[in-house]
Every structure is written in structure tokens, then in C-alpha cells.
Amino acid sequence: METVVIHGAAGVLGLLATPLITSDSAQQSLYGVGWALLAALAITLWASGCSFVLFGVLRFAGHLPSTKEMHPVIGTKDEMEKMNNTKENTIEDAQNKNSV
Length: 100
Description:
2 domains; about 0% strand
């Protein structure tokens, strides 16, 4: 998702900067910025729609894992305590090895 934000923001910045840099008058600049905003909206809608269809088909076909498969939920409090104790013991063991 970070890729969408970075490349999308750079693309919109480029769309908006172009009429400001290349226009001879303020009126032409504003007119160009308006068209650039409309273009940015159209590109966003097109990319979102294509992504929605593509990932919907892939998920329906079973080629994308579901959220539960990607991020399993720990069911019981005992399991969480066991994980925390394991992490603490691992940290303590590493500290003891470094101090020796």
C-alpha cells in the first residue's frame, strides 16, 4: 500500500505542477490546474476500479489468502501469556549471554 501512496502523490504533484510551470498567465495556470485535478480524479477512479476487479477475481479464484490466513488470531489468554513468557525468556537469555 505504501507504493500507491508514494507513486500516487508524486503523480498528482506532477499533474498539478505542469500547468503552473508551463503556462504564460495566471488564468491559464488555474485553468490547467482544474483540468489536472479532473485528470487526477479520473486516473484514481480508473486505477481503483481496475484493482477492485482484478483482486476480486483473484480472491474469488482462491489465489489470494484471506485476512485470517495472513494474520491468525490468538484465541486464548493462555496462549498470549505463553508467547509473552517465551519472548521475555529469550530476551533474558540473550542479555545473560552478552554479559558473560
